[in-house]
Amino acid sequence: MSSVQTQQEQLSQSDPSPSPNSCSSFELIDMDAGSLYEPVTPHWFYCKIIDSKETWIPFNSEDSQQLEEAYSSGNLHACCNFG
């Protein structure tokens, strides 16, 4: 018997129980499919150069929403707080 076969036999004989954090397939079936979907909401970022590297920093939720509304309406100006 080869070592590969021996390892496979040991794996098949090991405890197959899932970890407490895992989710089994029957749990997913029991869940309402509508609760799994959440539409993506846009969020805006600005670029700041720190130590010669680009760092993208998120706007706060309120400013991000105002930027998205301005962009969607074709407005090229929006007031934001850089923090």
From TrEMBL:
InterPro entries: WWE_dom (IPR004170), WWE_dom_sf (IPR037197). Residues 7-25 have a biased composition (Low complexity). Residues 30-83 form the WWE domain. It comes from the Eukaryota. Residues 1-25 are annotated as: Disordered. This is DDHD domain containing 2. It comes from Aotus nancymaae.
